[in-house]
Design goal:
ten-stranded antiparallel beta sheet, 12 strands, elongated, about 400 residues, alpha+beta
């Protein structure tokens, strides 16, 4: 069951923005539960809904709340924003059930409408939204090591992957019923993969009418992976456990590339250019769309019996070191670096963190294309192996960079 934490959707003013008949249709499957909570849905077009009572019920779920209602509220709530409304309107139009022209339609109204028409479509768009959120990834190289055709899994392949994942999830107390969504980009250079699955059961104490009790439920989680066709590598969002990351490398390697050990890993990033090239390692004039890059923070590992780590931070660390006529020691062991990146079309600079051997964190996922090219050009990231028969893939990636 999804975890529902109402903030927008359950507010009375928001509920009133949803077409009366549409809201009643949305709630009708749960009419018995609502009656038990003290609310009877109106049966006629002219009858009003008690929005205050409905809001109170939705914002205070109890142990009898139907899991289907919690799921419906969760997905509608997540998609009831102005940004997602545009996505849903376009998706509904493409699916052949566009809304009637109405300038007063609210984001919540659109989300409920799409849920009623095609629940799977709304879930897919929600998965796509989640897939584009993550900022911190762990990278694992594929065996080809260079440009590789992007996988286009069939429904059978997706089903096989889900079965593979479910076997591990069941054995490790996470339940079955996982769902996999794949979203290739327009240039066919990357594929975003979202895995929706359960977490281990959670027990929470409850207090009702002076009586102490407890409820058990299985929280839902979304893990994100990104396959990069140019580099032949898979990036896995760092929120998962080590076991889950190994599972994804095995399952997607086996079912998409025919080899469970297709993504063995290896070193992706190094901070050595900071030591050998100094401020010149920050040059970005060859990367379209980036104005400048500054080094803001580094961590140095001194080790010893106390495993000492030193952090040095400044608005511009190289400029600060120049004032003191200082420099990095060629033997320094840098374990992390934070860069400030100014993009041409963005007013506020953004942060990029690199941690050898294979971790990167971005403020926005859309920053990754340009930043990864800069990292590769300056020697911070491993370069792909380019071969004659892979030039078309490289051209597609360059097109994606121009589009970004």
């Amino acid at each position: 069951m999804a975890t529902f934490n109402p903030r927008r959707f359950a507010q009375p003013d928001t509920l009133k923005l949803i077409a009366h008949n549409r809201l009643v249709e949305f709630l009708q499957p749960f009419a018995t539960y609502l009656v038990d909570r003290g609310l009877t849905l109106p049966s006629g077009n002219g009858a009003e809904i008690d929005y205050g009572k409905l809001s109170m019920i939705l914002m205070s779920p109890d142990e009898n709340t139907p899991s289907e209602l919690a799921d419906a509220l969760y997905y509608v709530h997540e998609m009831a924003t102005r940004g997602e409304m545009d996505v849903l309107l376009e998706a509904a139009k493409e699916a052949g059930f566009a809304l009637d022209d109405d300038s007063d339609t609210s984001p919540a109204d659109v989300a409920v409408y799409v849920w009623l028409k095609d629940r799977d479509l709304l879930e897919k768009k929600h998965a796509e939204m989640i897939a584009l959120r993550p900022k911190s990834f762990e990278y694992f190289a594929g065996k080809v090591g260079g440009p590789n055709p992007i996988p286009n899994p069939t429904a059978k392949k997706i089903s096989d992957i889900q079965a593979h994942l479910d076997a591990w999830f069941l054995e490790n107390k996470r339940g079955d019923g996982s769902k996999v969504f794949v979203f290739p980009d327009e240039a066919n250079s990357k594929a975003w993969i979202l895995v929706r699955h359960g977490k281990p059961l959670r027990r929470e104490g409850t207090h009702d009418g002076g009586k102490s009790s407890s409820i058990y439920f299985r929280p839902e989680v979304h893990d994100v992976l990104i396959y990069n066709a140019l580099l032949d590598e898979i990036a896995i969002v760092r929120s998962g456990t080590k076991g889950e990351k190994n599972l994804y490398r095995e399952a997607f390697g086996l079912h998409l590339f025919g080899d469970a050990d297709y993504f063995p890993g290896g070193d992706k990033f190094t901070l050595q250019p900071l030591l050998t090239d100094g401020v010149d390692s920050l040059v970005c004039t060859d990367i379209e769309g980036i104005e400048w890059i500054k080094l803001r923070e580094v961590q140095r590992y001194w080790g010893g019996t106390q495993k000492e780590i030193e952090t040095r931070r400044a608005d511009d660390l190289f400029a600060a070191m120049e004032v003191r006529d200082a420099s990095f020691s060629a033997k320094a062991k840098l374990t992390s670096a934070v860069f400030t990146v100014k993009f041409e079309s963005v007013k506020t600079p953004r942060s990029v963190t690199i941690r050898p051997k294979n971790v990167a964190m971005y403020t926005r996922d859309e920053d990754s294309v340009r930043v990864e090219k800069w990292l590769t050009n300056r020697g911070f990231a491993s370069a792909p192996k380019l071969e004659e028969n892979n030039l078309e893939i490289v051209e597609n990636v360059d097109a994606a960079l121009a589009y970004a």
